[in-house]
Write a structure and sequence with these properties.
Number of domains: 2
Helix content: 10-25%
Number of helices: 2
Shape: flat
Oligomer: single chain
Mean pLDDT: 91
Radius of gyration: 17 Å
Largest sheet: 2 strands, parallel
Distance between the termini: 44 Å
Strand order of the largest sheet: 1-2
């Protein structure tokens, strides 16, 4: 059996992994040259920009995907708690922390 997944963001990648774990041959396509959807970084005018998501609030979903293949997330990735999650800077030099 073959599954065709259109969209290479977190949802598409998770779907492809779930199909693969069930024994399907999987083709994953996306309109962008790289997979990841919003979970990418890009460079423009000499600056590197995070396209998001910056904060992962449901790490258990990643743990579940690794477990489908007999792996653990912690063996491959170290998630680091951040405080604050975000810091917004304003033109007057002031900032606001969110988290």
């Amino acid at each position: 059996m073959h599954a065709l997944i259109i969209g290479g963001g977190f949802g598409g990648i998770a779907s492809a992994l779930r199909f693969k774990a069930k024994g399907y041959d999987v083709t994953l396509i996306d309109r962008c040259p790289q997979l990841g959807g919003r979970a990418q970084a890009f460079e423009r005018n000499g600056f590197r920009h995070d396209a998001g998501p910056t904060v992962i609030t449901a790490s258990f979903l990643f743990e579940e995907l690794f477990a489908l293949f007999g792996e653990t997330l912690a063996d491959h990735v170290t998630l680091v708690p951040l405080k604050p999650w975000y810091r917004f800077y304003f033109a007057d030099g002031d900032h606001f922390d969110y988290g």
